[in-house]
Amino acid sequence: LYFMPAPDKYNLYSPFIVENSFQKSTFFETIRTMEKNYQFIDTKKILSERIEQGEKDIYLIDDTHWNWKASQAIVEALDFSDGI
Question: What is the pTM (predicted TM-score) of this model?
């Protein structure tokens, strides 16, 4: 089983919001620490690293869906050495 939850736009960009008064989501931070009997694809980590490297517009500017840059980053981060 592969589990690949997608961070919403706010969850991914919230650290960059000045004077952010909204509650921080800890879903990804919590699930990272849990024991798993499945393959967890940490999309928030993958996309956050791209943003930290200077990538812009991971999500569509006027929408809450990620664009081709996000899809490409996730595919590039996947390890297919186990035969999938």
Answer: 0.86
